[in-house]
């Protein structure tokens, strides 16, 4: 039997801040999770997304340290349309999150933008551009 891709894990310095960001992207995460050391949600299609505090990771890997030189992972969220990319990007930046690349029409046929989550991971927002 071959392994099955099942979970994406993020290491966070502030669980509540990270979960607040991902709630703004529509993930259903209960408020009680803000104080937990490990949180998981099941996404549509069955893939899971998990968050662990740095303390949790160091509890079983004491020599762990965060990657340097920039984020090593990005997550991409499909939006209903180009207007939603623009709206969501503006909403996140207005809420104080770091906008990395403002919305643009990408040559591959999508409206695209990148914002950073509280730990500096790139979060891509995209939607298909209308075909003419």
From TrEMBL:
Domain VOC: 4-128
InterPro entries registered for this protein in UniProt: Glyas_Bleomycin-R_OHBP_Dase, Glyas_Fos-R_dOase_dom, VOC_core
Superkingdom of origin: Bacteria
Gene3D superfamilies: 2,3-Dihydroxybiphenyl 1,2-Dioxygenase, domain 1
Matching Pfam families: Glyoxalase (PF00903)
PANTHER family, sorted: BLR0126 PROTEIN (PTHR36503:SF3), BLR2520 PROTEIN (PTHR36503)
Protein name: VOC family protein
The organism of origin for this protein: Microbispora hainanensis
């Amino acid at each position: 039997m071959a392994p099955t891709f099942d979970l994406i894990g993020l290491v966070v310095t502030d669980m509540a801040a990270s979960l607040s960001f991902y709630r703004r992207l529509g993930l259903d995460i209960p408020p009680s999770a803000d104080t937990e050391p490990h949180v998981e949600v099941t996404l549509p299609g069955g893939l899971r997304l998990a968050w662990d505090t740095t303390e949790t990771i160091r509890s079983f890997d004491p020599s762990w340290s965060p990657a340097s030189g920039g984020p090593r992972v990005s997550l991409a969220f499909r939006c209903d349309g180009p207007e939603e990319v623009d709206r969501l990007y503006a909403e996140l930046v207005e809420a104080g999150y770091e906008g990395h690349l403002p919305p643009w029409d990408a040559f591959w046929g999508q409206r695209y933008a990148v914002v950073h989550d509280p730990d500096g991971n790139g979060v891509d927002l995209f939607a298909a551009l209308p075909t003419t």
